[in-house]
Each structure stands twice: as structure tokens, then as C-alpha cells.
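Memo to structure team: turn this sequence into C-alpha cells by end of day. - J.P.
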Amino acid sequence: MNMEKGNISGWSGMSDEYQEKSFISLTDIHLAPLSLGDQEVGLIDNFLGKRFLELGCGAAQNSIVADRNGACAVAVDGSSRQLYHALKLRVESNSNVELVKADLENLDWLKSESFDYVISMFALEFVEDIERFIAQCFRALHADGTFILSTVHPLSAFDWDHEKSQLIVSDYFNPPLEIWKDSKSENNPPNFTLFRTIGEIFTTISNAGFVVEKLLEPVAEHKMDRAKIPYGGQYWEPFRDRLERIPF
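Reply from structure team:
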């Protein structure tokens, strides 16, 4: 079974609920749920005139932010339903983001050294061949380009004890595979979330040729600071207790 294609099907099944219950800003780049966005963190210096590629874009909110700030943005996702929501937002925001349906494990069509920024927010965990994916990101960037990657923290693989408000970690170095199904497609094959240790991800990025300048573990902001949070909403609030203690 092609793991990513199965996950694409799963995301298409859960897309409507996810987009409805999540608040995702069209004015600030989101980096992690319930956490500060790039206006506060400052990873992107300047959008104006830059070529911007978003991989695993969902409804392309980050690409719309880039477009609104003067970038030429391309947003890629494998889920047709996610791209349906991206198209709606593109029209509503009067933006010019180019939307592309493509498999993240097959990015050979990307032109080499054609982007100033490549970003991917919470898509890597649904990709089986991360070495190939990271290598393609490196190839698509200009020599002085910037790669911004957010993915699930390996501690997300483990169960949260709600009564004690603590994490139960059995074996960090061999995190379990998460098997999940979307609520609308119970008869479909299961979907998978792949967890990697920080060391594995860092080594893969470094081996591809990248020089890592920042490594962040975002923390959930206090409820009173909602105005600073570009990624939250009803979908994420049930996880707040955990995300205030353990990175997502």
C-alpha cells in the first residue's frame, strides 16, 4: 500500500470538519497549533517579490498570507477536498495563489532552484520517504533560499494522562505508528501518522545539504492571547492542557 495515497484519502474525508473547526489566519503564517505565528517568531524576512512554495498546504492559508504580502505563491496538496477549500479561500481573499494537486513523494516536476522559500507545515508525518521529500525541497530552493519545516514532535506519539496531566512515554527512540480513520470513511483503509525522533529529522535535513539555523519547539499560548494565535479554534482547544506542557 502507498502510505501517502492512503493518507490523502483520509485527509479528504476529514477536510470539511477540520477546516470548519479550525481557525487558521489569512494574515499571519501559522507554525504550530495554539502557538505564535511568524509575525512574532520572525522566520521570514520579506515576502515582496519572492517565490514561495507551500507543500502540504491544506486550504493554502499560509500561501494566501504570502500572496497578500507580495510573494508569488504556489500551494501543493494531494487532497482534492483540501484544495477545494483552498480554491474557496483564494476567491474570497482575491489572491493569486497557484494551486497544484500533487503527491509529496513525487516532486520531480518542480524546477530546480526556483523558489526563495519552501515551507511545509505538518505534512512530513504523512510522508513515508522523508529523505526523498527533503532532498526535493533542497533542490527546489535557490542557493540562498530558506526552508521552514513544521512537523509533529516525537512526543506526540505517546498517550496523555488527563487525570495527572502528564505524558506516558514508553520508548522515545521507537515511537509507535499512529493508525487513524476519518469519521466519514470507516470502510476505507486506515491512515497513518509517522513519528520520527528529533535526531532522525535533523540528520535527514542536514544530509540533504541544509544548514539548520533555528530549531524551535512551540508552546501553546495562554487563552487570553488568542489575538496572537494564527492557528487554533474548536478543533485544537481540547488539546490545550497537553500543548501547554508538551510540544505538538
